[in-house]
Amino acid sequence: VSSHRLRSVDTRSESISSSLSILPPMENRPPSSSSNTSFTRVYRIRSNPRPFTIDTSRAKSNQPVVSLCARKIGFTEYPSARDDNKACDIYWHNVVYSDIRNVVGTASSRVNKFPGMTELAKKISLTHSITSMQRIFPHEYSFYPKSWFLPAHLNQFRAYCEEEERRREEEGSDRKGWFIVKPDEGAQGTGIYLINNPSQLKNEQQRMLVQEYVADPFLMADQLKFDFRVYGVIKSLNPLSIYVAREGMARFCTEKYSPPTSSNFDNLYSHLTNYSLNKGHGAYVHSTNLQDQVKGSKRLLSTVFHQLESRGLKTKKLWHDIKLIIVKTVLAMLPEVMLHYEHHFHDAPGPQCFQIMGFDIMVRENGEPILLEVNAAPSLTIDHLMGGVTDGDYVPVYRVRSVVDEVIKIPLVRDTLLLVLNLLEEEYNTKGVSSSSSSQRESTQDDMGTLKTRRKPHLSEIFPTRYGHCSGHLLFLDKAVYLFMQFVNLKQTVNITITGIRQLIKKCNLSNIVTIDEVEEKMKEINYYFTGDHNTYSNGLCFHAFLMFFTGFQSGNLRSKRIHWRDFND
Ligand code: ADP
Q: 257 near 352, Cβ under 8 Å?
């Protein structure tokens, strides 16, 4: 191994913030406040390296935090890839690379992305996955706002608004319902606006998601709307194993919230919690240390849980509900994740994939958590940019360390690396951390008491452990996807074509229930419902469209026969 390519294991200490050993165990309990503890500590680099390797040559913006964590836990890092033809144990990529098959060494290697996950987490795909589950398990998937996909669902959206209008008139209520319109591929709040009538849509033909606006967020004394970014980790697909990070982030608006009206609906600083939007507002509060963050615009989840508790909210229940949302959302996405994996690695054993996912969750006034979005590539940066043009004056742009981000993301990445190599338990079952020099020992006197106590992992399993027993029945679509795969040419596509459907109908003896003409007509309609495109029918139906095809479709403009699962002869 050439030395310039290999970043050797560094046994020096680095001063960095870590909440690892000072936050209490989460397990089934809500995060508790960390606001009354001291945070800055010497963060030691492991003196005895472990025999594991990690390739960060494609980690891009994730590289600083991954590199730091790898050194901390004694992995050998290859920042420019190996040149000795040997495979690394872990490959860390910033996105899913199309040549993943060639890059990732062997089937025993791990890579931090599932093929297809980026697409599957986008707003419209996520909505399709959750809607399929809502049709089968309506009460268990009520945590996601009612959503329509434009232009395909425009008529349904209009019909819903008319129905609501009628209902309000009957009740004598003048409270109008509001909707939030978001571009499918949008991020960081771009292109988002609020409406209370379909006629206000800026472009009915654009691919957009329209969603019921949740107008009753839980507010604290400052009256600023906020939401949480909670991190989940899919450790493996088979067997399915999901973890949650006990620390996350809360992002606050910069202007006071009031429910939308025709005079305030366009004030995005009070309706959208995005960091990228609010950081440009004069009222944005950057925190330079962890004591300040309790009043900052970006706070620790544990801090906000403590603040919520003191305002009377039962955070134990909230945390339980949030973890269930994560499990249920992953279960809804699972069939298509499996499908994409099989498509990508249809002819050779693929690597073991894992992924850190960001779940954006807001809390309603009544304490109920609502899922807003899933992010397949949550930011792992631990600093932020300051500067730019302020009041007409140019202020040089410079990077500033973000202590809140460090406290959340360093333990998250570190534990994820340990988790996927099955080292998490071993790491946390050893008491404390070996110190490397006496001077450091002196400088960390205050921390020693904490270090000697048994530390708790930042990640804890939520599936199958803990929530498997109450969500196992939701794995139902797993079985459907195996049926689907029998009739899909996985080498070429993840969609079922008309030929595949014909074969399925024949094989399952369904030809006495539907004719081929009916099948074609229905395929066209369902394809439009899912893609918003009349011309893509020959590309076949995606898995969720296939489910709708076979489980019935109760829309006004599609007269369909309803085929029941029991109609299948096998
Ligand atoms: P983006 O990917 O552009 O950030 P999001 O779906 O996360 O889009 O929405 C941006 C912000 O808008 C959220 O962080 C949240 O503050 C607000 N928001 C999104 N959806 C809703 C909703 N249904 N009800 C209330 N607020 C919402």
A: no
- Which residues pair with residue 370 across a beta bridge? 362
Whether 16 and 406 have beta carbons less than 8 Å apart is answered as: yes
For residue 90, which amino acid is it?
I
Give Cα 388 to chain centroid, integer Å: 30
Q: What is the pLDDT of residues 65-82, one digit of tens each?
A: 999 999 999 999 999 999
d(CA 45, CA 435): 9
Q: Are 503 and 495 contacting, i.e. CB atoms less than 8 angstroms apart? A: no
d(CA 545, CA 526): 6
Average pLDDT over residues 440-461: 59
Distance 228 CA to ligand 1 centre (A): 11
Q: Is 227 in the pocket of ligand 1 (CB under 6 A)?
A: yes
Residue nearest to atom 2 of ligand 1 (CA): 187
pLDDT of 265-295, one tens digit each? Answer: 999 999 999 998 999 899 999 998 899 999 9
Q: Using a 6 Å cutoff on CB, does residue 278 contact ligand 1?
A: no
How far away, in angstroms, is 274 Cα from ligand 1 center? 8
- How many Cβ atoms sit within 10 Å of the Cβ of residue 529? 19
Pocket test for ligand 1, best of 118, 123, 192 (most atoms within 8 A of CB): 192
Beta carbons within 8 Å of 460's beta carbon, 6+ residues apart: 26, 27, 243, 244, 246, 466
The three-state secondary structure class of 19 is: coil
